[in-house]
Amino acid sequence: MSRYTPYLLVAPFFLVFGAFGVFPLLYTAWVSTHHWHLIAGDGGFTGLTNYRDLLADPLFYNALGNTLSIFLLATIPQLALALGIASLLRRRGAAWQVLVLVPNVVPVVAVALVFGQLLGRDYGMVNFLLGRVGVGPVAWQADTWAAHLGVATMVMWRWTGYTALLYLAAMRAVPRELYEAAELDGAGGWQRFRAVTLPGIRPTLLFTAIASAIGGVQLFTEPQLFDGSGLAGAGGSDRQFQTVAMYLYEVGFSRFNAGYAAAMTWLLFLLCATFAITATTIARRIVRR
Amino acid sequence: MTLRVKRLPQAVALLALVLFSLAPLYSALVVASRDNADLARATPPLVPGGRLLDHLGELVDRVDLGQAMVNSAVIAGVVAVANALLCTVAGFAFARLRFRGREALFAVVLASAMVPTQLGIVPVFMVVDALGWYDTLAAAIAPGLVSAFGVFWMRQACLEAVAPELVDAARVDGCSLARVYWHVALPALRGPAAVLGMLSFATSWNEFGWPLVALDPNDTPTAQVVLSRLAGGYYTDYPLVLTGVLVSIVPVLLLFVLFARKVVAVLLRGAAETGR
Question: What is the 3-state secondary structure (H, E, C) of A26-80?
């Protein structure tokens, strides 16, 4: 073995990550300080103008707000439900684990189109069922909150089972003696869950919360296809469910304003990095306790 | 008696779980096999009708889903094989070879998984365009050739399945690294590598945002792009669209059924690791 062989073996990963991860990010910093048309190219140095415009852009804040709202609506019920499912499946066979993983292999486009039909205002099954109990009809696409809930439901459907399996694995790794001790102390099912299970799987809880956040900030396909009129990416007539990833797409590939899109990319990366560092710092403290 | 009463909530919860997991797919089958007139009735249909084959025929006439699925299969196939190969050798190197900077490099792999790379879609497009790759399969394939998840995961598999003594012993015997890898590591890693290939195939097959911009939708669409365009416009013909959806799900669902048990086992093991 030459001393370079190990580097050769790990090189493909770093080549791909460098070419399609690091380099574009650095290049973006350069582009973001220019007037830059996606096709025509460099239109001259403008300094921080793109950033200044972005920070004064109401559409950007609208997209940020929508992203955060959909993220919270999708994640909090998802993690809670996943905990419930994991507890339910603790002593059950592998067939159940396969079942809950099915939604995760369904393509996102398919999920969006199926739920788009189910959540149709006039002929959708969801409004039909709601109508039977005297609610509605809900304008799932037109109403802001309903749209956020609709998009969040798709995300939830696709990821809850996957998250549940992660929790299930973590629960099985909690030492049995802890449960026996708690039972001897007279703890009931709910108390055992709170005092033994939850602390035992805390690292996994944090991991899934962070993974959901990384997925949440990139949310694109579900809302993009939610309004039917597909490729425009406005996120509804009033941009009521346009996420940051959709706005980025609109600026870059409909307006061809690469400079502005680059500024947005950088700002979002900085936001994510700040979030990630804060989250890991807090997480470390909680886990150590 | 008390036992039964106690079990009832569990049974209800399990039934709800089955409904939750499968109802959307079932509803797609119902809609795809019905006419628009059926769907517009006061009570929407609950069971499949008999129009699925007609819609399949109409689908074939309206869009070239076949060619799009071939495109998707080529892209996802190359991505799957590349991940199975490249992640496995990288994982082996990180797990069982000693070299300077190993820990630091592996930390980079882990950190890269935290980067929301899809937000870089505009600069990545500029890179691919500058390479002259716009509307080539290479553009759709290259960013997915090797993944941080795959490297992390194959390293884990290697730590568990390939004994370090075995690697060292083989090396002392004068086995070349290639032969050590081929005869010692690879047999043990074949299973995990196959599961990784399957998961990579599904991920690539399901991708939408990147192929939408990297390929000309009129020239080289993927299955997902064709479906999204079929659904676009002012009026969505849902029976037709959901017929397309069912067709596009078949390959990933088949693969999943084939590998399901292994995938679950692997996920459960991997999850226990991340939780540590």
Answer: HHHHHHHCEEEECCCEEEEECCCHHHHHHHCCHHHHHHHHHHHHHHHHHHHHHHH
| C-alpha torsion sign, points A259, A264, A267, A272 | negative
Residues A225-261 pLDDT 10s: 887 654 456 877 788 899 999 999 999 998 999 999 9
Work out how many domains chain A is built from and give that number. 1
Please state which CATH class domain B52-274 belongs to.
mainly alpha
Q: How far apart are CA A118 and CA A113, in angstroms?
A: 9
The CA distance from B149 to B191, in Å, is 16
Query: What's the gap in Å between the CA of A220 and the closest CA on chain B?
Result: 7
| Closest alpha carbon within chain A to B45 | A125
The residue of chain A with its CA nearest to that of B83 is A13
Mind listing the pLDDT tens digit for each residue in B179-218? 888 888 888 888 889 989 999 999 999 999 899 999 998 8
- Band of pLDDT at residue A80, cut at 50, 70 and 90: very high
Ordered by start, the domain boundaries in chain B are 52-274
Rounded CA separation B207/B225 (Å): 9
B23: how many CB neighbours lie within 10 A of its CB? 14
Inside any domain, residue A36? no
What does A97-161 look like in DSSP terms, one character per residue?
HHHHHHHHHS-HHHHHHHHHHHT-TTT-HHHHHHHHTT-----TTTSHHHHHHHHHHHHHHHHHH
pLDDT of residue B17: 92
A265/chain B closest Cα distance in angstroms: 6
Is residue A7 assigned to a domain? no
pTM as predicted: 0.90
Furthest-apart CA pair in chain B: how many Å? 78
Contact B10 A161 (CB under 8 A): no
Q: Which residue in A88, A128, A36 sits closest to B41, CA to CA?
A: A128
A14 belongs to a structural domain: no
Tell the burial category of A190 from Cβ atoms under 10 Å away from its Cβ (0-12, 13-18, 19+).
exposed
And the tokens for A50? Answer: 């793109």
Which domain covers residue A203, as residue numbers?
57-288
State mean pLDDT over B27-43.
85
- For residue A276, the domain's CATH number is 1.10.3720.10
- Among A9, A217, A268, most B C-beta atoms within 10 A, so best to mutate, is A9
Residues in chain A with CB shorter than 8 Å from the CB of B241 are 113, 117
Query: CA-CA distance, A9 to B36, in Å (whole number)?
Result: 55
Residue A167 lies inside a defined structural domain of this protein: yes
